[in-house]
Design brief:
seven-stranded mixed β-sheet; binds zinc ion; binds NADPH dihydro-nicotinamide-adenine-dinucleotide phosphate; single chain; alpha/beta
Length: 353
């Protein structure tokens, strides 16, 4: 079968692979709609967590049709239209029983299997482990496109808001208003934030950030970002969410956070980066500022709950989609667009038929 991915680090391209075979608890899916993610681009450009990654089909955002199941799969049937979480834990591993690290089933980030431990969803077929626990059926009242935006963008953005433990009326800064940050803005709004300040420059993202609940927008390109937030708020933000930027942005986030506040990061840092923190930004060790970082938890239950938020009108995830491509071969165009990040882009999707 054909799939789009990386021949080696820095070389995107088409690959020829064997069609995957399901283990007893697994399923094989034919993707119907896929969307490339910023993390696919990171992996292609520098290997993500593995600088020697090669011969790998990319992609971890898909809805599709089940074409084959293992002999122990009970709930999911061949022919089901399913929503596939980007994070698919092995539910037999002890790590998932620890509520604090459900995304790390048998070791650091081990539940994130596409992209890292096996081929992703941008193939003619792809494999999903533990189908009954990981796959959700598309509910009535939720479009396939809206569901597709939940499998990574919404679950990650909302997880950033969840890690931030927002209290009613909190001032929340969301650094980065790409698709993940936009979902963090929406997540902060439904978590009862007071003032929400978004940080970014692309006009299409700024417009949508306001629709999702941002009250103010700041540009990281216009002067010291931490100072801008301190001037606006007086004493800093209660909660700061990181959904973009680089290793220096973590320091900036700490500088703008109130004593006792929480910095919640879902940003991916490259293997070559070193995270450091000046003592002053850290209150000389006495600030009580809490840095949390995380990979969103996976599985069917979380996805079902997120789709309830869509179904009952709390958030319209389909608004993230700015570009639509038709035909499996167009995956390459969508991927290139994602790599280029044109000013009018938030998320591209590809209908594979
Ligand atoms: P985008 O690249 O689309 O958006 C990044 C945002 O950060 C943009 O708003 C951009 O502004 C802003 N930004 C860029 N540089 C800076 C800077 N120096 N300071 C402040 N803001 C800056 O990314 P995505 O929304 O797709 O993804 C965001 C992050 O989340 C990525 O690191 C991605 O790898 C990670 N991710 C993590 C997951 C997880 O589970 N933990 C899952 C999925 C993604 P501008 O408007 O100028 O472009
Ligand atoms: Zn992703």
């Amino acid at each position: 079968m054909k799939g789009f991915g990386m021949l080696s680090v820095g070389s995107p391209g088409w690959l020829e692979k064997d069609r995957p075979v399901p283990g007893p608890q697994d399923a094989v899916i034919r993707p119907k709609i896929i969307s490339p993610c910023t993390s696919d681009i990171h992996t292609m450009m520098n290997g993500g967590e593995d600088p020697n990654a090669k011969n790998l089909i990319l992609g971890h955002e898909a809805v599709g049709e089940v074409v084959e199941i293992g002999n122990m799969v009970k709930k999911i049937k061949v022919g089901d239209f399913v929503v596939v979480p980007s994070v698919t834990p092995d539910w037999t591993e002890l790590g998932v029983q620890d509520a604090r690290c459900a995304a790390h089933d048998s070791g650091m980030t081990e539940s994130f299997k596409f992209l890292r431990r096996k081929d992703g969803v941008m193939g003619e077929f792809f494999h999903v482990n533990h189908a009954d626990a990981n796959l959700a059926l598309l509910p009535d009242g939720v479009s396939p496109e809206a569901a597709l935006m939940a499998v990574d963008m919404m679950t990650t953005g909302f997880y950033a808001a969840e890690m931030a433990e927002i209290s009613s009326g909190d001032t929340v800064v969301v650094i980065g208003i790409g698709p993940v940050g936009l979902m963090a803005v929406a997540g902060a709004a439904v978590s009862r934030a007071g003032r929400i300040i978004g940080v970014g420059t692309r006009p299409v993202c700024i417009k949508l950030a306001k629709e999702y609940g941002a009250n103010d927008i700041l540009s990281y390109k216009e002067g010291d970002l931490a100072r801008q937030v301190l001037e606006m708020t007086g004493s800093g933000a209660d909660r700061v969410i990181l959904a973009g930027g680089d290793m220096d942005t973590l320091r900036t986030a700490a500088e703008m956070t109130k004593a006792g506040g929480i910095i919640s990061s879902v940003a991916f840092f490259n293997i070559s980066e070193t995270l450091s923190m000046p003592a002053a930004a850290w209150g000389f060790g006495l600030s009580g500022k809490d840095i949390r970082c995380g990979l969103c938890p996976g599985g069917a239950l979380r996805l079902k709950k997120l789709m309830e938020l869509i179904k009952y009108g709390r958030v319209d995830t389909a608004k993230l989609i700015t570009h639509k491509f038709y035909g499996f071969d167009k995956i390459e165009d969508a991927f290139n667009l994602m790599a280029e990040k044109t000013p009018d882009l938030i998320k591209p999707i590809v209908y594979t038929d």
